[in-house]
Amino acid sequence: MDPIVEKYSILQSLTLLEEQFIKGNCNDNDLKNDYIKLSNELLNQWNIINNNDLTFLDNLKHYKLLHVTNVELREVLKLGIRRIQIGINGFDEQLKEKEKEKEKPEPEPEPEKEETSIEVPTETIKSGKEVAQATSAFITLLDAIKLNYNSPEILHPLLSKIITTSSNINDNFKGRSNLINWLIKLNQLKNNNDKPILDDNQLENLLLDVDTAYNGFFDSL
Question: What sequence ranges are listed for the domain VPS28 C-terminal (predicted)?
């Protein structure tokens, strides 16, 4: 595998893992152990091949992996980037923070001040999160196609997530109708007893339609 593609795959995997950690989906004992093990393995793999260098993100466009700006890319992958910069998994980080809190001296009381705060509109926060989720869904499917995943059972849920997440922002962008047609076709193939797979020509057409819809989605924002 190309080193840059491998670095990107690790970073994206860490991002998806951190999303589940933040949602509290890793608190069960078994899931906690799975999270710690997978997170540590990804961090170790990253350190072996990359030595904490994130400059490769600026070169991804040359590999035609995606069609977003460097700023947008870093926003989408910010959870994985943060985990790499910290260097330890989320539970170890929490434990470390607790230990620091115990070591801190009791602060002296300060005079009360009138607090002023800037409120960020809830809709703005929600919109940014939904755009990031839709972007992540597009990237995941594009990567899967480029890695020659040709099983409808794998591709259908990935495409379904694109339809769901992008519709939260806009359900009328260029190329969306083609994605709906593919969703129906993949569902039919998935439920076929013969379990057919997509041939190279079909995969190429699917890649083109997803890429066109991806650009159409961003143009509509």
Answer: 126-221
Residue 101: what pLDDT?
Answer: 78
Task: Compute the 3-state secondary structure of the chain and give helix, strand, coil in percent, each to the nearest 5.
Answer: 70, 0, 30
Class of domain 127-219: mainly alpha
The residue behind tokens 């066109």 is 212
Q: How far apart are alpha carbons 56 and 54 in whole angstroms?
A: 5
Instruction: Tell me the C-alpha distance between 186 and 184, whole Å.
Output: 6
Query: Rounded distance, CA 162 to CA 9, Å?
Result: 19
C-alpha triplet 191, 193, 194: angle, nearest 5°: 115
Q: In the prediction, which pLDDT does 181 show?
A: 93
Residue 20's SS3 state is helix
User: Closest Cα to residue 146, out of 212, 93, 83, 210?
Assistant: 210
In one-letter notation, the amino acid at residue 144 is A
Cβ-proximal residues to 74 (8 Å cutoff; 6+ apart), any chain: 57, 81
Task: Return the pLDDT at 65.
Answer: 47
**Using one digit for the tens of pLDDT, what is the confidence trace for 48-86?**
776 556 666 665 554 444 445 566 667 778 888 888 888
Q: Domain ranges for the chain, please list them.
A: 3-103, 127-219
**What parts of the chain have a pLDDT lower than 70?**
1-3, 50-73, 104-127
Query: How far is the CA of 186 from the CAs of 43, 160, 210, in angstroms?
Result: 35, 10, 14
Output the pTM of the full model: 0.47
